[in-house]
Design goal:
Blueprint: E1 2-4, H1 5-8, H2 18-28, E2 32-37, E3 45-55, E4 63-68, E5 73-78, E6 88-93, E7 107-109, E8 112-114, E9 116-118, E10 157-161, H3 175-185, E11 208-210, E12 216-225, H4 234-242, H5 250-262, E13 266-270, E14 279-283, E15 289-291, E16 297-299, E17 305-308, E18 313-316, E19 320-321, E20 334-341, H6 343-353, H7 358-363, H8 371-386, E21 391-392, E22 397-400, E23 409-412, H9 413-420, H10 426-435, E24 439-442, E25 450-454, H11 467-478, H12 499-514, E26 518-519, E27 525-526, H13 528-533, E28 554-555, H14 560-570, E29 576-587, E30 598-610, H15 614-631, E31 638-640, E32 649-659, E33 662-670, H16 672-675, E34 680-688, H17 689-695, E35 711-720, H18 725-736, E36 740-749, E37 758-767, H19 776-791, E38 796-797
Helix pairs in contact: 4-5, 5-8, 9-11, 10-11, 12-17, 18-19
Length: 799
């Protein structure tokens, strides 16, 4: 929002410099982002009047102007489209210096001497709305030769207010609201704008029907005759421009002027363009259409509120008027609208149609229900000054929903002292509240230190509702700088970690530090394309109503999709990767929309290497998985091929991961259709964190260092392809009994010396005893028992 100090001075004296006022407002009202001084660098620019205009003999859109400057007539060559005899505009004489640093010199343009320059708003660095590229048109009654910086209306100071800091204060979206604040902060009285209340003696009615009182608390309408549409006076236009509003014509400009001054939007309809002398406030009909003032034909829906005549919608309530009823050069009668609309409905309508207007920005903030009458009277007061023949042709129609009773808030002085940390004193608290126009009455309790406070109507719009809000009002006007400073003292303790948090930390530490994996963070949203590629089209996914993008409308069921996407992106620059992620996945519990989805935290890891077989990479990842379980103090994992297994894993080289009969997740090679583009072996696992927690031992198990050396043997068995490593390990451990200290696979071979449909599994076996050194014979006998056990699975030792 832009706050003109010239405009502000109409209502209150500004005792401080602009910079001091900006600091005061920032500390106690709203953040001031900038101070703009209009006219500070116009030292060499004065007022001039164009006497005559003739075309330049060389053409090219140039004209030769004779300009009255107060120091004689000057010849100026000008290319502006709006130059004309009688135009009053800024003039920079030869030797003047413009705000952008240019020095104006007398020069010849196509053999014609130009003795200065007529200026546009941009050349004067005037950032004002609707100025255009032509000459800056000044008021016609200004005297030529008068320094431009001495024209009071032009030499203004504009404060730029951060809109976010006044979102909760609809009263501050008008000049008068800031005037009230300045008056309260500087112990002044506000000079309220002049209003001549229009007599309601006209006999004719202009009927208004509000079908949706829940969306329109008040609708005021009045028909006026004697309208003469023309360009607004310069001073009115300039004030609108400094406020960031574009001038159009005197009627529309007056509605915007009142909106900028009071914060209440108004709208004017051309009465002759309405179908019948009546207004209906209602919801839009299904598929109802309306061409708005921006020329766009819009399709409406029943959630939107419209202003309608007998034929259909003529305006989007609180957002934008319709093109069919707009004020035009031939308008002679109009209907003035002043209303209070539901803020939530206005915001939703503006968002749904992509329309951000100045009116909607104010209506969506819960406006004062007393404002429509005040704003209508202010419009009429100003309009009668511009259009003396203006008269009412109808009575004022004011359809109003009963206002809720004013809320009284109980305020205790003890609470003021407690929250502020200082005692402002009873008299000071009462003075501040009354300066802010709050009603204050003694509640007759606690020795006169409790009050019943009634907020004014312009602050009773969800802004001040509880006792703490009142304390804040007292504190900001009293001045936060006047509050005693005490450094905060508090005992800071680290938040205790629960069992799941400690487990998650241990999982991440083991994967990153002990195993060399790199952690990634992927989005929780997945695309329909990824779901299809991973064979999950038939699996239900949790759908998001407001997704971050149209194609990412579902929540992930697995971390594998994000990990493989990261792998694919990084595969362009690396030949080997080990990635992991710990995150949440979501699965619908039932097809019913009312049920909440199941949410689980899982850990997933992927390993990839160019030029390696997938089985080799899977073998290495499986060993890493066993390392992880060892670090997490769980029993050794077991593996089986029982369904179901994820569709993105290799159908023959994947398995469930189990500990103590509890399924933790799955591990396997990536499905060949997905691994083909990665030019190497890919394997991954995914485990439920909560399941790991159920099988984890709370205290590490102590295992003494063996006192006697181990006897180490390597053994290879040739088995059928259907036999798993887990089955071989299980049979071998049972046969070896207590003599086996460790058993691990170190090679899987398929080749020329191995029969078709078979493979060779090579194990390193450590034999040992806790009380003596084993003999080679004892180790060989245990190995022979293992051979017989493996033979039952169809396996034979490989020579």
């Amino acid at each position: 929002m832009k706050l003109s100090l010239n405009w502000l001075r109409d209502f209150v004296d500004v005792p401080a410099s602009p910079e001091e006022l900006a600091e005061l407002l920032t500390l106690r009202v709203a953040e001031v982002e900038g101070v703009i001084r209009l006219g500070a660098e116009w030292g060499g620019v004065s007022v001039a009047r164009v006497r005559s205009v003739r075309p330049h003999p060389k053409g090219g859109g140039l004209t030769i102007c004779e300009v009255e400057t107060g120091a004689g007539e000057k010849t100026v060559v000008c290319g502006a489209a709006n130059v004309r005899p009688g135009l009053v505009a800024p003039f920079a004489a030869s030797g003047s210096r413009l705000p952008d640093g240019r020095t104006i010199r007398e020069t010849r343009i196509h053999d014609i001497a130009s003795q200065g320059m007529l200026c546009s708003a941009a050349e004067l660095e005037l950032d004002i709305a609707g100025a255009g590229d032509g000459l800056f048109e000044l008021a016609e009654d200004l005297t030529p030769g008068r320094p431009l910086a001495e024209v009071r209306e032009l030499a203004d100071v504009v404060l730029e207010i951060d809109n976010k800091s006044i979102t909760h204060r609809p009263d501050l979206w008008g000049i008068l609201g800031f005037a009230r604040e300045v008056a309260a902060l500087t112990a002044q009285e506000v000079r309220l704008p002049e209003n001549r209340r229009l007599s309601a003696t006209a006999r004719e009615r202009f009927p208004v029907s509000v079908e949706t009182p829940e969306l329109c608390a008040r609708y005021l309408a009045l028909a006026l005759d004697g309208v003469h549409v023309t360009t607004s006076p310069f001073r009115l236009r300039y004030r609108l421009q400094t406020a960031g509003l574009r001038p159009l014509n005197n009627v529309v400009d007056l509605t915007n002027y009142v909106m900028a001054e009071l914060g209440q939007p108004l709208h004017a309809f051309d009465l002759r363009r309405l179908a019948g002398p009546s207004i209906v406030v209602r919801r839009a009909r299904p598929e109802e259409r309306l061409t708005t003032l921006d020329g766009i034909d819009r399709i409406l829906d029943p959630t939107m509120l419209v202003i309608a005549d007998a034929k259909g919608a003529v305006a989007l309530a609180g957002v934008m008027g319709g093109d069919s009823s707009k004020i035009g050069p031939d308008t002679q009668t109009l209907v003035l609208e002043a209303a209070t609309f539901d803020p939530v409905n206005i915001r939703k309508t503006a968002a749904a149609l992509g329309l951000r207007t100045d009116a909607a920005a104010r209506f969506e903030k819960s406006l004062d229900p007393e404002l429509p009458g005040k704003a209508a009277n202010r419009f009429l007061t100003l309009a009668q000054g511009l259009m003396p023949g203006l008269r009412a042709v109808s009575r004022i129609e004011d359809v109003r929903r009963p206002d809720p009773p004013a809320e009284r808030i109980r305020l205790r002085l003890s609470r003021v002292r407690q929250l502020l940390g200082v005692d402002p004193g009873r008299a000071k608290v009462l003075e501040i509240l009354r300066r802010l126009e709050f009603g204050v009455e003694d509640a007759g309790a606690e020795g006169g230190d409790v009050f019943e406070v009634t907020p004014p109507s312009f602050r009773a719009t969800k802004d001040v509702r509880i006792e703490e809000d009142l304390v804040e009002e007292v504190g900001r006007v009293f001045g936060y700088a006047n509050l005693p400073g005490h450094p905060p003292r508090a005992e800071v303790r680290p938040a205790p970690q629960g069992r799941e948090q400690r487990l998650e930390r241990d999982v991440k530490t083991t994967l990153a530090q002990a195993m060399g994996f790199q952690e990634v963070y992927a989005y929780s949203f997945v695309t329909a394309e990824a779901i299809g590629a991973f064979g999950l089209r038939t699996a239900p996914h949790v759908e998001v109503r407001n997704p971050p993008s149209q194609d990412q409308s579902r929540l992930r069921r697995s971390l594998a999709l994000g990990l493989l996407h990261a792998l694919e992106v990084n595969a362009r620059r690396f030949r080997q990767q080990r990635l992991f992620e710990v995150g949440r996945v979501w699965e619908p519990e039932t097809p019913s929309r009312e049920s909440l989805p199941s949410e689980h935290k899982v850990v997933a890891a992927v390993e990839w290497q160019v030029g390696r077989d997938g089985t080799e990479v899977l073998h290495r990842l499986k060993g890493g998985l066993e390392t992880l379980f060892g670090q997490l103090r769980t029993a050794a994992p077991a593996f089986d091929r029982a369904p179901p297994l994820p569709p993105w894993l290799h159908p023959g080289r994947s398995a469930r991961v189990m500990v103590d009969g509890i399924v933790l997740g799955h591990v396997g090679e990536l499905h060949p259709s997905l691994a083909q583009a990665l030019r190497g072996g890919v394997a991954l696992f995914e485990l439920r964190i909560d399941a790991i927690g159920r099988v984890r031992h709370g205290i590490p198990r102590f295992r003494p260092i063996p006192r006697f050396p181990a006897v180490i043997r390597d053994r290879s068995w040739v088995v059928g392809e259907a036999v798993t490593v887990a089955e071989i390990e299980s049979r071998a451990r049972q046969a070896g009994g207590s003599l086996i200290r460790d058993l691990s696979v170190f090679d899987i071979y398929r080749g020329a010396s191995i029969p078709s449909g078979h493979k060779s599994l090579s194990f390193e076996i450590h034999f040992g005893s806790p009380d003596r050194t084993l003999t080679d014979q004892e180790a060989d006998e245990a190995l022979a028992r293992m051979d017989r056990a493996i033979h039952e699975l169809g396996g034979v030792p490989r020579s």
